Amino acid sequence: MKINRKSISALTITIKSVIAFGLLSVHSAVIANESNLSLKDCHLDGIKQQVQCGKLLVPENYDKPNGEKITINFAVLPAIDKSQKKEPLMFLAGGPGQAAVSLAGGLYKAFNEVRKSRALILVDQRGTGESHPLQCEENIKQDVYSTIPEEFSAQDVKDCLATFTGDLSQYNSENAIRDFDAVRAALNHEKIAIYGGSYGTRAGLVYMRLFPESLSSVVLDSVGPIEVPIGLFGKSAARSFSMLLANCQKEASCQQAYPNLASEFNQVLATLDENPLSISIPHPRLGTQTPLVVNKSKFLSTIFMQLYSIEGRSLVPLIIHQASLGNFAPFAGLTAMSEGGMNMFVGLTFNIVCNEDMPKVTEDMILADSDNNFNGNLSHVAWQTACPLWPQYRPSDDFYNPVTADIPTLIISGELDPVTPPSNGEYSHKTLPNSRHIIMKNSSHTPGVSGCAINVINEFLNKKDPNDLDESCLDEIPAESFMTGLNGGI
Predict the structure, then answer these.
(1) Confidence band (pLDDT; 50, 70, 90) for 137?
(2) Number of domains the chain contains
(3) pLDDT for position 337
(4) Rounded to a whole number, what is the distance in angstroms from the first to the last CA of the chain?
(5) What is the pLDDT of residues 382-435, one digit of tens each?
(6) CA-CA distance, 256 to 258, in Å (whole number)?
(7) How far is Cα 264 from Cα 383, in angstroms, rounded to an integer?
(8) Residue 305 domain boundaries
(9) Residue 435 backbone phi and psi in degrees, to 5
(10) In this predicted model, what pLDDT tens digit does every residue of 283-308 receive, in sequence order?
(11) Which residues lie closer than 8 Å to 270 by C-beta, 6 or more apart?
(12) What are 198-246's pLDDT values in tens digits?
């Protein structure tokens, strides 16, 4: 069934508003044999060096080892110096719904210090990339300029579900970790280190519970603890935005350029709420006339996404100020950045969040999270539309217990993070007996990939002692700065 492009755009924009078990009968080592594994030299986008690409057949349902099989796609970025024979670092992507292999080019550069002595293993989580992807339609060109979040409907959810194959109940966090450990075993690594970012930290915590003997050390960057449901981003987003407003007023140039930023923000929201904008603009890239539709929820969704990074945050005061003057060209420029679509397999996003997180969310929790001065209940809309229609599976009650594995663990949080605030990291720090929690000032979501943090992470992976690290470079992270003019001045 074909999904119309406008509906997919609405889905994408809506998603932006949101981003001790007994082992089953077959251990990963049993299925990780040569007949199930293929490994070959290859090239990936953004990497000139030859790397390795692999496929591993695993059971779709680990309770039925002789039943349906699926292919898990992965890549190995080799160490620069292989002679040291250090255990590799496996990267657990975020989302849920990111495909790790598609991030290879950026990770190759960001983790260069780590790659000097250890390989990186990137695995497409089942339901993403080339691992039985759960996506509504591939390679769709989205009309990001004319769509609004409200266009995402129950029918879109039904149409999306109609395109999927397989047993959706098996595309869960625990089976993803069984796949990851099967890749480890197939590559003949007794132990590995893991780095998880955002949802990848949730996956990492599940890995620590299911296969602690496979892990030498763990890095959790921007924690989504098992105890905290994914999807309640109202309060955390409001906190992050309030810090942006305060930091603008602390910086002389930003305060001078935008002395009334908070009131201008409220003015724009009130205006768009009463009279959504519908105009024709020159396409930011092509120059052709393009319809632009902006309403309150679309404006908030776009601002929310900028809060994820320091670079994005630097643009927010300018976008708000210009919008208050009636100039939405800078806003259109931000919109253009999402024109190529998101590297998110939203079928897996809904499958996991609707089954592992939303069932733990009460009406009182939704009301409390909606009581904020930024985006209200906007981060809940996608779940409230999709989850009532989504096929159900449920983890066992033990899934939600805190993880207590005694594995060296470095926890990193960004002070300004809009979705996984430092308070999330404290949950895991309190229950993991061999952990340290670093809160990086003037940093936002997944700050562990920054140059300073990578050096700290590399030292940790070598020492495996989270409490004996040189963190001095973290004190040198500059305060937030903001763009104060259309010519790009900061």
Answers:
(1) low
(2) 1
(3) 79
(4) 48
(5) 999 999 999 999 999 999 999 999 999 999 999 999 999 999 999 999 999 999
(6) 6
(7) 30
(8) 1-490
(9) -130, 160
(10) 877 888 889 999 999 999 999 999 99
(11) none
(12) 999 999 999 999 999 999 999 999 999 999 999 999 999 999 999 999 9
Q: At what angle do helices 5-17 and 154-162 cross, to 10 degrees?
A: 110
Which pLDDT does position 489 carry in this prediction? 56
> Is 114's pLDDT higher than 80?
yes
pLDDT greater than 50 at residue 26: no
Give the closest residue to 78 by CA, choosing from 56, 36, 54, 108: 108
* pTM given for the model: 0.91
Amino acid 27 reads: H
Structure tokens at 242: 């309030």
Residue 347 has which token pair?
A: 């079928």
Q: Of the given ranges (9-13, 109-113, 258-262, 344-348), which has the lowest mean pLDDT? A: 9-13
Predicted local distance difference test score (pLDDT) of residue 281: 84
Per-residue pLDDT, averaged over 14-27, amounts to 36
Which H, E and C letters describe 422-474, residue by residue?
HHHHHHHHHHCCCEEEEEECCCCCCHHHCHHHHHHHHHHHHHCCCCCCCCHHH
Say which CATH number the domain at 13 has: 3.40.50.1820
> Residue 260: which residues within 8 A CB-CB, separation 6 or more?
none
Taking the C-alpha atoms of residue 28 and residue 178, their distance in angstroms, rounded to an integer, is: 6
The number of beta carbons lying within 10 Å of the beta carbon of residue 27 is: 15
What backbone torsions phi and psi does residue 219 show, to the nearest 5 degrees?
A: -115, 125
